[in-house]
Every structure is written in C-alpha cells, then in structure tokens.
Write the structure tokens for this entry.
Amino acid sequence: MHFVNAKGILSPQNGMNIYRGCTHGCIYCDSRSVCYGFTHAFEDVEVKRNAPELLERALRSRRKKCMIGTGAMCDPYMHCEETLQMTRKCLELIERYGFGAAIQTKSDRILRDLDVLKRINEKTKCVVQITLTTYDEELCRILEPNVCTTKRRAEVLDILRENGIPAVVWLSPVLPFLTDTKENLEGILGYCTRAKVYGIICFGMGLTLREGDREYFYGALDRHFPGLRQKYHHKYGYSYELKSDRHEALMEILRDVCRRNGIVHEVDACFQYLHEFPEKYEQLTFF
C-alpha cells in the first residue's frame, strides 16, 4: 500500500476510485489489464489520501445533485478500508451534501457503513451492487480467494433488503468450463430472488480477456485446474470475448426468472437506474 495526492476524484460520469489496485485476488479481474496503465504492482494498493477533500470540494461546487458511483475499477471495501475508512468518509460527505450513491463491491465490509447507506437512501437514493459469479462455495474460494464467499454476499443482499436499500447484482463474468452450468446459474438466481434485488446486470454468459488480465487468469488456471488452459487456448485462442457454448440456454433461464420475479435484467435499464437521480425519491418498500 502506498499513498498519493490525486489531482481530481470525480470522472465526467461522476464515478470515483479512491483506491487503485486490489487485494481480493479474483483470478479474472479485468482491472489488471495493461490498458489501464498501472505503474505499480496491482496488489500494492494506491490510496488517494486527499480523496475526501477533493470530493467535498467537487460536491460543494455542483449546482445539480446526482448519483456518485464507486467500485467500477477497484473495490472500495478491500482490506485496507478496515483501517483507513476512506470510503466511509466519502459516503458521509455524499450524505451531508444530499447526493445519491451507487456502490459496487464483493465485500461484506460494506455492512459496517449500513448506517450511512440508510441515511443516504432516506434523503435521496442509495443502490448497492454486489457481484455474484459462482454458487459453489469451494470454487468461489479459488476464483475470488481473498474476499467473502457468495453465500455471505447473498446474506448481505438479504440485510440490504431488510433495511430498504435496493440492490443490483452483477452476474459477471461467467467462466466457460467452470461456472457456465444450469445448476450454478439457478443457485445464484435463487439468492437474487430471495433478496428481491432490483436488477441483474449480465453482459452474456462468458468473459473478456485482454493483455495483463489474460496472463494472470491463465496462470491461475494452471495452478488450480491443470489442463484447462489448453482447452481455453484450443477453443478461443487470444480472443477478447470468450462466450460459453451454453450462452443462449443460460440467458433464457436468466430472462425467464427475471420476468417471473419482476427483476430488471436489461443492461441499459439497469444502468439508467444506477445513474438516475430522483428529484423526489420515494424509498422502495419491500414486502
């Protein structure tokens, strides 16, 4: 972990990354890709120590309220957040200045800040996005080794529902030969329907790989699933998009479950919901 003074904190789309890099160790992480220009080891997390000051300055100068997003590149609730509490400080500013929040994470550490999330949601709108990739707990410990497992994340979804905070699930990526099964999908969807999530974001049954991410992913396959790397190479070569052969059948299951349970599953509609700041926000009621 190392500290820097950043020049800015909010992107043109009102997203922020308080940290750069991650310690969760997910074997498929796109943020490892060379195109993002990391100049330090990915696990050597860069902390923008002046992030709260920059955020307060930005929020104070905004003439129009909006949703502030975090977690798109690096998880805001990785291990260092336990002591640094940078994410919490930024959420407190979002609440104080009357903005909304859309947070993406894999970690149950978000529950530490449940009080702030509830206050934001009472005043404007707070949406929590949780990534679920595998129903198999043992497989989850391999794919996402340094963060809580899917079962615990599903419990987080339940707690959010009980506290009136809407949630969106990222069902991505789906790994060919590993998680692209009917049983895996139905297990994840069972968690989603139980928690009455607002929406599910799924870009298709597959994953993307590019330079940096690809090498790390294939190295992990060699360590944990001998021979699987060769199957990937034989089928996909060096393609960017790796679509499962079961894509259509699995997507039909997803669409059917979402339709029957009133879950938004169109990607554009989900993103619109995440970015839409309500002029008069009526808190969702869960039954």
